[in-house]
UniProtKB/TrEMBL annotation:
SUPFAM superfamilies: S-adenosyl-L-methionine-dependent methyltransferases. The lineage of its organism: Eukaryota, Fungi, Dikarya, Basidiomycota, Agaricomycotina. Residues 392-473 are annotated as: Disordered. This is Small RNA 2'-O-methyltransferase. The keyword Transferase applies. It comes from Trametes cubensis.
Length: 473
């Protein structure tokens, strides 16, 4: 590790941390593209895959044959459509994910991170266990990315974050042909450290030796790298050149910042399909895979959906349930999201939040709108009871029945009742006598004190402060 004695690196802080920014960039593009299938190459301990295992709060909009569009003349639905679009914005619905890495130790964590959780189990117990509305399959593979796995062919999205800089030269040469040519996903998301940004860690006039890091292990450059296992760190220009070189496989790219990123989108069409297939044949990638052997499947996890998924109750039944819940909660208005996360409501809607919106709109006595914020911006969707139904809400002074069969103690310590200081006790003769909360019976008190005035302690004495007359043995 290199570091100069007469110069030090400048402090550089990333907020959020750089790995979180990379993950956010990946997830943002996945949301924008509506990705449902993901292969994480170099998945490590499965941090990204673990995120993708979280179930979506609701299903994607139902098809028209399930929930027909309302006639525009019958009910104004512009607000409903706006609310639905906002609710579905940015929601991922992954149904098939996979991870590949060469490190068995890291993959053991990935296997655990993608495992199905039993609701309320162990350290994963939550105050509210989310309901899964769509199936998810997660597979963890061990092996080199230079080896072709037939299961990965045609996957929708491949992610490779901070991986290519760790690849030996021969594996790096196989990266583009395998990823872009053989697997030909619709989207490829890559990140790699920017050597250009490394200058930010030292003063402009600082020598190279001022950098704290590791020399280029290949001896091709005099650069100091951020990690001991990095085989290279590209400048912005070098990464752009590499991206353009691999573009022969039919991709469009976008570049930028400290962790350099590239999003490649497949060019569609029969011509491009034939070009990719021809290049794969010419490079002999599939033949090399047969010689080297395939990947090892370490785990397959199936996350089944709720049994009520896509099986909603009639709209009027859902409307009645909403009214009963609002009366139970003693709320004349309640945010739609809060109402949804009552599992009984979500289950009745079969996982379709659009079903809840329609049920509220069509039920006589309920209305749906947006509650404006103080800033003037439109707020979240709110369900309201019409005035005709608000009378069903019990008054605030009326106590709710107990949640259990236990009967609470009727005595009130703060009662002004004059008889509150009198207690009826049973005697041996079977009748009751009065006992007040007044002065204690002195003789009884002395007898009790004599009986129970034995000092006790745990273990051996710790000092003179322990004035005990007996010990626990």
């Amino acid at each position: 590790m290199c570091q100069s004695d007469d110069a030090q690196e400048l402090p550089v802080t990333f907020r959020p941390e750089l790995y979180l920014q990379r993950r956010g960039w990946v997830l943002d593009i996945m949301r924008r593209e509506g990705i449902t299938e993901v292969l994480d190459i170099g998945c490590g301990e499965g941090e990204l895959l673990s995120c993708l295992c979280n179930p979506a709060p609701w299903l994607a909009p139902p098809p028209p044959d399930v929930l027909p569009t309302i006639d525009a003349d019958a009910t104004p639905t512009s607000t409903d459509g706006e609310i639905a679009r906002e609710l579905h914005k940015g929601i991922l619905h992954p149904v098939r994910i996979a991870g590949l890495d060469v490190s068995r130790a890291d993959l053991e964590y990935a296997v655990e991170a993608t495992r199905r959780r039993t609701p309320g189990s162990g350290a994963y117990a939550l105050w509210h266990d989310p309901v899964r509305w769509e199936p998810l399959e997660a597979k963890i593979w061990e092996g080199s990315l230079a080896v072709v796995n037939p299961e990965f062919v045609g996957v929708e999205c491949i992610v490779s974050t901070e991986v290519i800089e760790h690849l030996p030269e021969d594996v790096l040469q196989a990266f583009a042909p395998t990823i872009f040519g053989v697997y030909h996903p619709r989207i490829v998301l890559l990140t790699t450290p920017s050597y250009t940004f490394n200058a930010r860690f030292t003063a402009p006039d600082a020598p190279i030796a001022a950098r704290s890091g590791w020399p280029d292990p290949t001896k091709r450059t005099a650069r100091i790298f951020r990690h001991h296992d990095h085989k290279f760190e590209w400048t912005v220009e070098e990464f752009a050149q590499w991206s353009q070189e691999v573009d022969e496989w039919g991709r469009d790219e976008a570049l930028g910042w400290a962790s350099q990123v590239a999003a490649f989108k497949r060019r569609e069409g029969r011509e491009w399909e034939e070009r990719r297939a021809k290049q794969v044949d010419e490079l002999g990638i599939l033949e090399r895979t047969t010689v080297q052997g395939g990947h090892q499947l370490l785990a397959t996890h199936h996350h089944p959906p709720h049994e009520a998924a896509r099986r909603p109750q009639p709209l009027d039944v859902v409307g009645e349930l909403v009214v009963s819940k609002m009366i139970q909660f003693r709320e004349a208005s309640i945010p739609l999201r809060e109402l949804w996360f009552d599992d009984a409501v979500a289950v009745a809607c079969g996982g379709w939040v659009d079903w809840l919106i329609r049920a509220v709109r069509q039920y006589d006595g309920l209305c749906l709108g947006k509650e404006a914020l103080i800033s003037g911006d439109p707020g979240e969707a709110v369900v309201r009871l019409e005035p005709s139904l608000q009378d069903l809400i019990p008054p605030a002074s009326q106590a709710s029945p107990p949640d259990t069969d236990e009967v609470g103690d009727p005595w009130n310590a703060f009662s002004d009742d004059d008889d509150a200081d009198e207690v009826r006790v049973a005697t041996d003769e079977g009748h009751e006598e009065e006992s007040g909360w007044g002065e204690p019976d002195v003789e009884w008190d002395r007898e009790a004190a004599a009986k129970f005035s034995v000092d006790t302690r745990w273990g051996d004495p710790q000092g003179d402060d322990w004035s005990c007359s007996s010990e626990w043995t």
